[in-house]
Every structure is written in C-alpha cells, then in structure tokens.
Amino acid sequence: MATAHPQATKRDDPEEGSEKAAASGSAGHADVDVAGAAPVRHPLRWLAIAVLAVLGAQLCHFLFTNPNFEWETVGSYFTAEIIGKGIATTIELTVVAMVIGIVLGVLVAVGRMSANPVLRTVCGAYVWFFRGVPVLVQLVFWYNLSALLPRISLGVPFGPEFVSGQTNHLITPLFAAILGLGLNEAAYMAEIVRGGLLGVDPGQTEASDALGMTRSRSLRRIVLPQAMRFIVPPTGSQVINMLKATSLVSVIALSDLLYTVQSIYNRTFETIPLLLVACLWYLLMTSVLYVGQSFIERYYARGATRNAPQSFWDFALFRRRVRTPAATGQDQEPDPKESA
User: pTM for the full model?
Assistant: First the structure.
C-alpha cells in the first residue's frame, strides 16, 4: 500500500528576501525614464510678469511725460543747501531718539522680566502708557508743557530747590521732539527686547547659574548675544519707522526735511516738485538703512539657521536665496516606505 509523503516546505531565507526586495526596488527605480523629463511650466507666472511689465511701462510713461512733475525743479532743489540742513536734522533726530529708545527699552524689558513685582508693575505701566498714546499727541504735549508747568526745578521733594528755569527756555522744539520720539520708541523697543530674551532657551540661563555666574553677567554674556538674532530684524524696522516718524515734528515747527520742504513750497507754490524731493530723499535714506540691516541680520544669523536671511542685493536683483543641501534634503537618504 502506497503512502503519501507530505512535501517538505522550505523556509524563506531572510537574506535572500532582502536581496530580492532590494533588486525589485532597484528595478523599480530603473524603470523610471527621465530622458524626456521637461521643466515644470508656470503660465500664470509669465502672465503676471507681462501684466507687471505693462503697468511698469505705463507708470514710466506717466512719470516722464506729465509736465506737472517739473523734474527740472526737482533736480534744482534736490541738492540745495537748505534741503541738506533739513536732512541733517532728520538724521540727528533719528539717531538720538533710537539711542534713547534702545537703552531705555533694554532697561524696561529687563524690569518687566524682573522678579520684583513693584519694578515689573512700573515698567508694565510705562509700556502701557506710551504705546497707548499716539506719538503725535506726545510731541504736541511736550511742546506745550509750559502751559502745565511754567517752571521746572530740581531739588528735594517738598524742600529747597537746587536748579530751576522757565519751561519755554528748557523745552525747545528739538528737545520736545527728542522726548516725544525717544520715550515712545523705548516702549516699543522694550517689547522687542523682551520677546528676544524670551526666545532664548531657558537652559542657557540654568547653565550659567550652574557655573556660578551672576544674573547681570549671564544676561550680558550669555542671553543677550543669543537674543540678538531675534532683536535685530524688528529693531531695523523700528529704525526705518523712526526715520519716517521724524516728519511728524513739522507740527511743532522743527526744521526737519518735511518742514523745510513745506516752508519752500509755501513761498513758491511748487508743491508737487518739493514733495517729490522729500519722497526721493526719504527713499534714499531708508534704502541705506535697509542695506545695513541686511548685513547685520546675516552677521547675527551665522550658525543659527541653515538659510541665511536674504541680502539686499538678492532682493534688488531678484535672485533666489541660496539653500544648503541639508535644508533642501539632497543629502538625505530616501525613505524606504516612499520607495516602496
């Protein structure tokens, strides 16, 4: 009697299975034909470029064919000495107000992060007040301070006075502009600095405490340098805003760029050409500040991000930002699941 013997089963070899999977994977990649690959077309992008080109050509035609611009008058006043004095006043106001704003803003930001509740409350009230009142109102208030305080004195409270003087002699238009712009800027800089300090990893402070560093030394040597890459970009924007905000001092009869231009066209009735002179100078000064901001941002971003911030020349020449292979993922190994 014949007996049926069961057929012996053969176990799959793990190594052989992996080799087969690799072979099938490589074969799958080999089946992809890239010889006829073509770049992706962007018809909407070209349409947008064509529309912008037409609008740009129309704008140039409007600028150079409209006689009301009076470009000859613009050229004659652009390098005038009186305009240069107004520009010097504008730059002076910007520098002094930003120095006051940055120094006082750092102190207020540190005070808002202090463990002392009284100091934290006072600094918070300062930020609340100066951010809530428009800067134009502050300028007019400081300029008319003599209506509230005819005399200003320094001395012992409820005691003898050491120094005193008339408010009109002390609060000049220049000093009122510096107070209004500087104190207002300090409130905004305090929030910028506080945000930058909060962006630093708390472990950095803990490590400095473990090394026995004092709180002030840790702030100066550890926390603040790392926070600069968070502080510099908005600070650069604040400098540009401050340069433009100096035009508000024209309401208190301070001879900045805008007030100088207004005083000229009030006599000559050449309003449009003189306003174009002011616009061109403001654009030129803000462009210089933008270039400086881009260099400072790239300096403090070294080693912190894989992609450096776009420089001014990349923006002006429409160049793409250079990306590292690590950021683009070119040096990363393909995911087996995606290959499968």
Answer: 0.72
